[in-house]
Amino acid sequence: MKSVILSSESGDDLNLLVKLAQKLGFKSKQISPELLEELGMAEAIKEGQTGENIDTEEYIKSLQE
Questions:
Q1: pLDDT, tens digit, 9 for 90 and up, residues 13-28
Q2: For residue 37, what are the CA distances in angstroms to 5, 34, 44, 45, 57?
């Protein structure tokens, strides 16, 4: 399954896209700004995971510089 997230300042435009999606047989769901932020954070965390361990003390030292 593939997904797309669309955002707009215009509620009317989003409603039009939702109606079009339904007419074309797509499932659609409106999400809150909070959930959108959580999804973005989860994606950023996933992209940042390297599987490598770092030296915690060295990292904290670099933040203090």
A1: 999 999 999 999 998 8
A2: 12, 5, 11, 12, 30
Q: If you ran DSSP here, which 8-state letter would residue 3 be given?
A: -
Contact indicator for 54, 48 with CB cutoff of 8 Å: no
Contact 5, 39 (CB under 8 A): yes
In whole angstroms, what is the distance from residue 14 CA to residue 20 CA? Answer: 10
**Dist. CA 44–CA 4, nearest whole Å:** 17
pLDDT > 90 in the chain, percent: 34
pTM listed for this prediction: 0.53
Residue type, 44: A
